[in-house]
């Protein structure tokens, strides 16, 4: 024994002691020597044998001895980042006494706690590593970013271009007059320097190129920083078309991915915290809303029909038995309200949480078109595993090659302190957001701190489908050249033609189709974007018409345009066999017939 090396002496006949001594040795390395008392007790005649049998003993280089909890914390203090337990033991009032009582209880029931340890962590428990997890997460997250940027790129000119529905230049002019110089803080985006159609395209396709660099592991940290800046710019520039939870969800994940690229441990834990908040808040808002369909477990009896953009499989899901749909609704609550707490549990319960969330997200993905949303949530489940778990399922050669590519970042003190401070700020701000989302009223000082970073969207509140829509009302837009014969505009993805099969569009996010679903729940007099959309159709504006499946007026624009309201339901099996997916019933006008010239009467 090196006289400068402390020694931890444990009971070599105790499975529990062997289990955790092996784990601690992996944590501390050569900084501590671990020996069973059966081998070295004779070297310490001053220590009674009963003391060795009762608790672990720590022998310092100076010969000083500590036992039980203090001995454990002294040994752990030699592991990077684990010294806090010894400081709490020595300085936190009441902590030492409580810790000793816990130690005594565990020591008295060591066989039971050995079985519990094996159950929770596995028989060969080692300190988890996350280099492989980080490497895979960032590469796959690059694909999520790629889908988001390309999806918006192919729609950007029709949505916010100079001839789009909500031109970006008009937003910037209004912000200049209303907010002055404060606009740069309230709406951070690169478009303050250039808001031309070419700049919009450059941001979208530049983001796609940077996402590919992340996927290919080329300049990943710089690329992730620029991706965050560019998508934040699109979020502010997109106006009505960028008000969805998945956009802020992507931004928050993107910032944490950047932190993960810099420091593994805080990045992993903050991503787990994000997944917890996203899942748990989605469950709580359903209960807080008081919606009877959630409380009586009938929500899924409506969901597959009324969700914004169903997939072809949604028709089949909607025709499952009511009993099964009620069971599935209850299962949703289990996944969203109970399993998230396992995220912070030991290894095997955490894996159970991951598999439960993956199952739920897979079912949602198969029955609903939610762009990259479910894919991103499923990717977040990756951080619930560790490198050993991935090696167990990956082919040995692939795991070895990925491990060789995965960089190891040394925990520099300055970087660790900075990452820790940032983690505290993000957790604090997210707790404020959760409190507000659940109806609380945090003190003004706490809200001010949260509000200070709010323009960056580093944290957001979540909560999906708080209130279930029980009827599917669809807006059908029609144009006419004479006011008598009307032709329908067909959208690319939302229901229209009753014989058209619901399409797949994952991971694409068709933002105009989604806005039409929300418009059907609102009063058109309050939807400025909807008026402008109809106006662009009366002009046959190419960028806007390109957002649709086709143009029923290819040669010259319609003279009149209107919107009618329909109630849509799925067909039964016989009609489905004849090629019809939907039944629809006319409810009336959603928007009256209008024309461009104000001096001519509308009908």
List the helices and strands and how they pair.
Blueprint: E1 7-10, H1 15-28, E2 33-36, H2 37-40, H3 49-54, E3 57-59, E4 65-67, H4 68-76, H5 84-91, H6 95-108, H7 110-121, H8 131-153, H9 156-160, H10 168-179, H11 183-186, H12 197-215, H13 220-237, H14 245-262, H15 264-288, H16 292-295, H17 300-306, H18 312-318, H19 322-338, H20 347-367, H21 373-380, H22 387-393, H23 396-405, H24 413-437, H25 444-453, E5 472-480, E6 486-488, H26 511-519, H27 528-538, H28 542-545, E7 560-570, H29 573-577, E8 582-594
Parallel strand pairs: 1-2
Antiparallel strand pairs: 1-3, 3-4, 5-6, 5-7, 7-8
Helix pairs in contact: 1-7, 8-12, 8-14, 8-21, 8-23, 12-13, 13-14, 14-15, 15-19, 15-24, 17-18, 20-21, 24-25
Whole-Å distance between the termini? 97 Å
What's the Cα radius of gyration?
A: 30 Å
How many domain regions? 3
- Strand order, largest beta sheet: 2-1-3-4
- Average pLDDT, rounded to a whole number, is 92
| Number of E strands | 8
Main sheet overview: 4 strands, mixed
The outline comes out as: elongated
């Amino acid at each position: 024994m090196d006289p400068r090396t402390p020694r931890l002496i444990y009971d070599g006949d105790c499975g529990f002691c062997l289990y955790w001594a092996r784990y601690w040795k992996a944590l501390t390395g050569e900084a501590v020597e671990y020996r069973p008392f059966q081998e070295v007790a004779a070297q310490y005649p001053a220590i009674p044998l009963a003391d060795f049998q009762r608790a672990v003993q720590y022998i310092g280089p100076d010969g000083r001895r500590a036992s039980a909890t203090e001995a454990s914390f002294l040994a752990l203090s030699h592991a990077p980042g684990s010294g806090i337990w010894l400081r709490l033991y020595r300085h936190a009032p009441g902590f030492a006494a409580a810790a000793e009582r816990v130690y005594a209880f565990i020591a008295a029931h060591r066989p039971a706690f050995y079985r519990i340890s094996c159950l929770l962590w596995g028989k060969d428990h080692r300190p988890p590593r996350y280099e492989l997890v980080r490497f895979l997460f960032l590469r796959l997250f690059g694909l999520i970013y790629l889908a988001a940027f390309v999806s918006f790129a192919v729609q950007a000119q029709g949505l916010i271009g100079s001839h789009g529905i909500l031109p970006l230049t008009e937003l910037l002019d209004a912000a200049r007059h209303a907010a002055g110089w404060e606009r740069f803080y309230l709406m951070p985006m690169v478009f303050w320097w250039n808001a031309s159609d070419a700049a919009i395209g450059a941001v979208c396709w530049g983001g796609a190129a940077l996402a590919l660099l992340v996927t290919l592991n080329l300049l990943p940290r710089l690329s992730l920083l620029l991706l965050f800046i560019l998508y934040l710019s699109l979020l502010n520039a997109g106006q009505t078309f960028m008000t969805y939870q998945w956009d802020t969800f992507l931004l928050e994940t993107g910032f944490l991915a950047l932190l993960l690229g810099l420091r593994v441990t805080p990045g992993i834990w903050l991503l787990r915290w994000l997944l917890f908040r996203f899942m748990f808040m989605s469950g709580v808002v359903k209960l807080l809303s008081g919606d009877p369909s959630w409380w009586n477990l009938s929500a899924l009896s409506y969901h597959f029909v009324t969700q914004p953009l169903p997939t072809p499989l949604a028709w089949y899901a909607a025709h499952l038995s009511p009993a099964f749909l009620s069971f599935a609704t209850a299962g949703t609550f289990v996944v969203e309200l109970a399993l998230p707490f396992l995220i912070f549990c030991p290894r095997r319960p955490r894996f159970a949480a991951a598999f439960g969330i993956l199952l739920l997200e897979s079912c949602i993905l198969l029955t609903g078109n939610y762009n990259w949303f479910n894919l991103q949530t499923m990717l977040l489940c990756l951080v619930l595993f560790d490198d050993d778990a991935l090696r167990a399922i990956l082919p040995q050669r692939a795991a070895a090659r990925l491990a060789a590519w995965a960089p190891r970042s040394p925990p520099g003190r300055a970087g660790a302190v900075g990452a820790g401070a940032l983690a505290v700020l993000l957790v604090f701000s997210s707790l404020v957001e959760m409190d507000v989302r659940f109806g609380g009223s945090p003190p003004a000082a706490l809200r001010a701190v949260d509000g200070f970073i709010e323009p960056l969207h580093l944290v957001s509140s979540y909560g999906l489908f708080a209130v279930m829509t029980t009827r599917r009302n669809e807006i059908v837009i029609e144009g006419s050249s004479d006011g008598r014969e009307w032709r329908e505009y067909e959208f690319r993805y939302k229901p229209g033609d009753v014989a058209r099969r619901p399409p797949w569009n994952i991971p694409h996010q068709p933002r105009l189709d989604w806005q039409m679903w929300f418009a059907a729940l609102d009063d058109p007099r309050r939807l400025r974007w909807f008026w402008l959309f109809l106006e662009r159709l009366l002009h046959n504006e190419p960028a806007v018409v390109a957002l649709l499946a086709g143009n029923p007026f290819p040669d010259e624009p319609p003279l009149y345009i209107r919107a009618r309201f329909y109630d849509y339901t799925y067909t039964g099996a016989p009609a489905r066999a004849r090629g019809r997916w939907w039944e629809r019933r006319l409810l009336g006008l959603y928007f009256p017939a209008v024309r461009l010239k104000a001096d001519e009467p509308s009908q």
